[in-house]
Amino acid sequence: LVANGQVDLSQAADQIDDLRHILRLPHAVNGGDYVVLGVSDGGVLYNNRELVQQAMRGEAVRLPIDRWLALTAPEDQLETVLQQWQYQTVTRQRRSPEQLVPGEYYIEGNELVIALLPGVHPHSVVGVRADGRIVVGAVGGETNFSGQTLAELAQTFVDEHQVEWLWLWANGKDVVLETEATTLKASDARTDAVEVLLVVKAEVPFDGLPPEAPGILDVTGIELEEPLDVGDIVDSLEAVETSN
């Protein structure tokens, strides 16, 4: 999410499998299963990551809706469903795709022309500062409804925590951050852990690592003059909580 101290979401469209964490994709329940627009209705978005990048730039995309309607709601309820996901129709105003702003849409035949909003979720991240300090952070909230967008998340850790590099670790219901001092998790967090990231500082340094070991910290920009002790890998660990 951050590279060389700058917000950089250029890899998100290809690397994040669950597009709901990038974009606010309307979905409805069908027999207990979520049917996600552009993903589980034929996968136009899921199978075209260039289209995802276009949507991330705030540009309108065209999505077929016939299959999504067949799986979810009658056509006369489509506007109601989209309104629940904070989208506003401009169908009657006959705008062009170029005129749409994020959050607006219109229907043209069996296509939905829509400028998608960014997804809002709880997140957890791992970052590195220029001095080599590792930052482990989390944003609380509720999946789809509160937290931060990826752009907001990245900018927060650049501005407030001076990270040079930042990687997304978990989203939504998988977000749980525990330290000796505090616990922060999504309001709808899963009861069972799905993934665990453990950051450990050695109390007693080992004898040293092989000569090539300093390369593991090249991303920090630190010049290392001697072999790195394991105890130096995490010189200090800072856990960051970010409110909604």
Report low-confidence residues grouped into runs of 5 or more.
209-238
The best one-word shape is: globular
Count of alpha and pi helical runs = 6
Record the strand order, biggest sheet: 5-8-7-6
Mean pLDDT: 76
Output the helix-strand order. EEHEEHEHHEEEEEHEEEHE
Question: N-to-C terminal Cα separation, in Å?
Answer: 19 Å
Structural class: alpha+beta
Q: Biggest sheet, in brief? A: 4 strands, mixed
Number of strands: 14
- Radius of gyration over alpha carbons? 21 Å
| Helix content range | 10-25%
Strand content: 25-35%
Description:
This protein has helices at residues 12-15, 49-56, 66-71, 78-84, 150-159, 230-233; strands at 2-3, 6-7, 27-30, 33-36, 61-64, 88-89, 104-108, 111-114, 123-129, 134-139, 163-171, 176-178, 183-185, 237-242. The longest helix has 10 residues, at 150-159. The protein is α+β, with helices and mostly antiparallel strands. A hairpin with a 2-residue loop joins strand 1 and strand 2.
List keywords for this structure.
alpha+beta, four-stranded mixed sheet, 6 helices, 25% strand
Which SSEs are present, and which pair or pack?
Layout lengths: L1 E2 L2 E2 L4 H4 L11 E4 L2 E4 L12 H8 L4 E4 L1 H6 L6 H7 L3 E2 L14 E5 L2 E4 L8 E7 L4 E6 L10 H10 L3 E9 L4 E3 L4 E3 L44 H4 L3 E6 L2
